[in-house]
């Protein structure tokens, strides 16, 4: 961990950190390390630490999550992405903690599509046991996750579940909920445009959701 921190700090660019922080609405400080450089640092760290050959390291993720600069949370996401096959059913609660901590679209969207999607695919029981509560709960980011976790399922998408979660949240005034609904519909329209078109026509959705969800439908009609 200390080695990775040193690598990051040695490559910081405080001038670049300013626009990066501004892009994220000034919610998090940055070291100013661009994505290509950060990935190169992570590759060096993986090669020299051998951490990817070990069991999933929750403490490593938590230590990165507690750091102030956003690059450290991005590093944690990179590590999680490379460890998806190691995740077990009960790790859904660990991922829930990450979703609800230092929450913003950049972390939540990756966690929704990758680890939550992977865990739910391999352990469908977590949908009724956990994700169901997210969709009907009060936390904005968990509701967004419930709408998005099937984003990469394509033909394996449970559209009845997707549509139910969307209808539960369609009256939300939250930008990130309206955007998630549109994104989920747009992605599923690549697989089943007829179903999405019918759903949009039969439900009163926010204009943003309709606009986003209909993007590919316009190309096929």
From TrEMBL:
Pfam families: DNA_alkylation
Species the sequence originates in: Virgibacillus salinus
The name this protein goes by in its record: DNA-7-methylguanine glycosylase
PANTHER family from the UniProt entry: ARMADILLO-TYPE FOLD (PTHR34070), DNA ALKYLATION REPAIR PROTEIN (PTHR34070:SF1)
InterPro entries attached to this UniProt entry: ARM-type_fold (IPR016024), DNA_alkylation (IPR014825)
Lineage: Bacteria, Bacillati, Bacillota, Bacilli, Bacillales
